[in-house]
Write a structure and sequence with these properties.
The structure holds two protein chains of two kinds. Chain A is α/β, with parallel strands linked by helices. Chain A has helices at 22-37, 55-70, 82-90, 103-108; strands at 2-7, 12-20, 42-46, 50-53, 74-78, 98-100. In chain A, helix 1 (22-37) links the parallel strand 2 and strand 3.
Chain lengths: 111, 397
């Protein structure tokens, strides 16, 4: 389990890998908190390396979305695996998040 | 710090007694291994200094005996040896000696080595004390959790329920004493039953606190006021709330904020026990399974917002019926997301297959079969997530 963060000119790309469970949810929450402090609030999340997300994981993504929106930033999501997409659809989160096919299109969408 | 020294030579004993007391240790002596062993058991010394070569029980055997005994505290053993050969040291260490001092020993060396021993022993004692406190705390927590689990179990149905031709059964296996899953069947009036199965995000105590609260909120009070049945000023003085209204009301009441990111998923439905027609709302929860009298299955609904996440969420309703021979299953994702030994998930297809294959089984046998299949799939009957399933069927009357 890990969360990698790369700051590009305008967009910050977050790349979590492994199971998006309670443990990663905590790390993700801290990560968003730090980015808000650094005012890096244009965020693209590359979910390609996530094949499972549980209720805590979804909760932390929504928490992140709300926190960033309050700072007038944006979170966009890319690269959902079929398993994760199913869960997004079941919980209707695909209507809440801006979802992109891959990280390149998500990144480009900010320009 | 209490030190026991064992040597068969009186002059060595005298010397040790003098040195040890002058350095502030509480010193006790024994003249052979057996006497030493008796004193070890009664005094529980912190450090034992023992001669290796002694008639009767020798130092090595004594060391062995200490290590295999059930004396609760750690005893630091120093072997006195005339020979300083590598092989001897290995044999001594294997017997469980902590240190060696060559004979004849030098006063300053003995003093320094005892100081090191005392340091290790005091660390050891701190650790033992912390461990025992931890164990105590663990026992308190475990007792509390068990008590909480009993309370939670009292909130779900206690026996197989029958309401006007409809029979319910269920499977409930909390992952850690208490669960974030909970379900119930509630009679709202002479012809209407409400049922729900919900799953609070996360696990353990925080999830259980919310699931227990929700169970209370979804239990009618004696005058039936509550989200499931609103009171009216005119006869019949109540109105049964539609499932989407119930879920919307819960969504408003349990809306999370920045600090509190807990939410839950639920399937809530009502059914008319005479007409067998019902409606249900699915809020972020896995789709209920409807089974026809010929055994074929279909999923009801394709999703919905979880509860407590978005204030503006709106919910849909799905009609269903439970005619004679039909079954309806509500279940939590603890079943479909149950992880197997190979890392794969149990999945909806496996669950559907068991349900299809078991459509002639009694509900009880079907529950047992699902639980067994899950345990086999996972390779253990201790589940990582709460497992819950509620099923209802209408039998030939």
């Amino acid at each position: 389990m890990s969360i990698n963060v790369t700051q590009e000119t305008k967009v910050t790309v977050i790349t979590p890998a492994g199971r998006f469970d309670a443990l990663m949810a905590k790390e993700f929450k801290n990560c968003i908190g730090e980015l808000i402090e650094k005012r890096q609030i244009m965020i693209a999340i590359d979910m390609t390396a996530i094949d499972f997300i549980d209720s805590s994981g979804l909760g932390s993504l929504v928490g992140g979305l709300k926190g960033i929106a309050k700072e007038t930033g944006e979170i966009r999501i890319a690269g959902l695996s079929p398993e994760v997409r199913t869960i997004f659809e079941l919980t209707r989160l695909h209507r809440i998040f801006d979802i992109y096919e891959n990280i390149e299109t998500a990144r480009a969408s900010f320009v | 710090m209490r030190i026991l020294y064992i040597d068969d030579k009186p002059d060595i004993r005298n010397l040790l007694q003098r040195y040890l007391t002058s350095w502030g240790y509480e010193a006790v002596g024994a003249s052979d291994g057996e006497e030493g062993w008796q004193l070890i058991q009664s005094l529980h010394p912190d450090i034992v200094i023992t001669d290796w070569m002694m008639p009767g029980l020798n130092g090595l055997e004594l060391c062995n005996r200490i290590r295999t005994s059930d004396i609760p505290t750690y005893i630091y053993v120093i072997l006195l040896t005339a020979r300083n050969i590598k092989e001897d040291l290995i044999v001594g260490m294997e017997a469980g000696a902590d240190d060696f001092i060559g004979k004849p020993f030098e006063k300053l060396e003995l003093k320094a080595r005892l100081k090191a021993a005392a340091r290790i022993i005091s660390l050891e004692r701190t650790l033992e004390e912390k461990n025992s406190k931890l164990e105590e705390a663990y026992n308190v927590i475990k007792d509390d959790l068990e008590a909480a689990a009993r309370i939670q179990h009292s909130l779900i149905p206690q026996k197989i329920e029958h309401f006007g031709g409809i029979t319910f059964d269920w499977l409930f296996c909390p992952s850690l004493f208490v669960a974030g899953d909970i379900f119930n069947i509630v009679r709202l009036d002479e012809k209407t039953l409400a049922f729900y199965l919900l799953d609070v995000s996360g696990h353990g105590i925080p999830a259980a606190l919310l699931s227990t609260t929700l169970s209370r909120v979804l239990t009618p009070t004696p005058n039936f006021a509550g989200p499931m049945r609103h009171s009216l000023a005119v006869p019949p003085f109540y109105r049964i709330t539609a499932p989407r209204e119930v879920v919307s009301e819960l969504n408003g009441r349990f809306m999370n904020d920045d600090v509190q990111t807990q939410y839950f998923t639920i399937v809530y439905g009502i059914i008319d026990i005479h007409s067998a027609a019902g409606t249900l709302t699915q809020a972020g929860h896995p789709s209920p399974i409807h089974q026809s009298a010929d055994g074929t299955v279909r999923l009801i609904g394709d999703g919905g917002f979880p509860v407590g996440m978005f204030p503006e969420a709106d919910y849909e309703e799905h009609p269903f019926s439970i005619n004679v021979g039909e079954r309806l299953f509500l279940y939590s994702d603890g079943i479909t997301e149950c992880r197997g030994n190979d890392g794969g998930m149990f999945g909806i297809d496996r669950l559907l297959k068991i349900i299809c294959d078991g459509y002639r089984m009694s509900l009880r046998n079907l529950m047992i079969s699902i639980e067994r299949e899950l345990a086999v799939f996972q390779g253990s009957s201790q589940f990582d997530d709460d497992i819950s399933l509620l099923v209802m069927e209408r039998k030939e009357e």
